[in-house]
Amino acid sequence: MRPKITIVGAGNVGATAAHWAAQKEMGDIVLVDIIEGIPQGKALDLLETGPVEGFDTRVIGTNGYEETAGSDVVIITSGLARKPGMSREDLLAKNKEIISSVTREIVNRSPNAILIVVTNPLDTMTYLAKKVSGFPKNRVVGMAGILDSARFRSFIAAELDCSVEDVQAFVLGGHGNEMVPLPRYSTMGGIPITELMSPEKIARIVERTRMGGGEIVALLKTGSAYYCPSAAAVQMAEAILRDKKRILPCSAYLEGEYGLSDLCFGVPVKLGVGGVEQIIEVRLTPEEKAALETSAAAVKKSISELGL
Fold first, then answer.
1. Among candidate residues 87, 108, 142, the one where a domain is terminated
2. Measured CA angle at 73 (ends 70, 79), to 5 deg
3. Domain end call among 142, 168, 185
4. What pLDDT shows up at residue 85?
5. Where in the sequence numbering do the catalytic residues fall?
6. Which of 98, 99, 151, 262 has its CA 20 to 30 A from that of 53?
7. What is the pLDDT of residue 86?
8. Quick check: 251 and 128 in contact, CB under 8 A?
């Protein structure tokens, strides 16, 4: 039997995630959205793309949750997207309602699923999904660090005029302006970028990475990023379904790691069939640790506003 992947939300992020997953033939896909016709139409269009692109993937769309029963992985993208001038935290109240409802529906039908949360404010919504689901911490994980580090990698590669494939970058912390890119753990061909660029150039790239989501929102004016967020979520799902043991930066529930507890926060994890199979701790300088604590304080404040 092929794996079953549910994607909740058939907007730009959800529909594009379905596209990536179908191309990779990761399993059968159920696309869910409350707007009648939208998930059905996008699913049918994607199904009909199979003969052209050469993938055998069953894709269905629905406005309910019965078809999602028995899902192995659920990617939650539903919620309001940011608009220009809107912070991720501005989304909190409305998306709290949406994520709580979606999580209950999924848990009732797929009690053994692994949840991948994409909705903003990311770390807070991941924490909410964990609390509402009652799932163990390894089965609820947020997509953030892959997106943030991909932006960091792109900017580094552009500055060094090299292939992005040869650039690895490391971003810790919450998915917001307080995220903590770590240049000394970021490399080109294994060489730390601190050996290749001036501190001033690195500082500019770090700042652009922190503001990367807002930069795209400002350009689009009526939406937010969706190609990279959806690809990142599918990379996580693939690591889980194919037990790849990938080391990826994700928002995971912490119980003392990095000196932090009772929050979901961006850290490097090992993703495999068990979900978050390991949280990897790295040594930080005093300055990096201080920046991480500032980021954690922002996430904790947002979580407190959930009123759980």
1. 142
2. 110
3. 142
4. 67
5. 175
6. 151
7. 63
8. no
Range of the domain at 102: 4-142
User: Are 149 and 129 in the same domain?
Assistant: no
Token pair of 183 as six digits: 């240049």
Whether residue 151 is found in the same domain as residue 267? yes
Please tell me whether residue 265 adopts helix, strand or coil conformation: strand
Which stretches in the chain have pLDDT values below 50? none
d(CA 237, CA 227): 16
Q: Residue 176's pLDDT is what?
A: 83
* Domain of residue 73, CATH code: 3.40.50.720
The answer on 196 and 53 residing in a single domain is: no
d(CA 32, CA 106): 11
Task: Determine if residue 66 is left, alpha or beta; phi over 0 gives left, psi from -120 to 50 gives alpha, anything else beta.
Answer: alpha
In angstroms, the first-to-last Cα distance of the chain is 39
Distance between CA atoms of 184 and 186, rounded to whole angstroms? Answer: 6
Q: Which residue has the tokens 């935290």?
A: 89
CATH (domain of 265): 3.90.110.10
Helix axes 286-304, 122-133, angle to 10 degrees: 60
pLDDT given for residue 83 in this prediction? 63
How many structural domains comprise the chain? 2
Judge if 154 and 298 occupy the same domain: yes
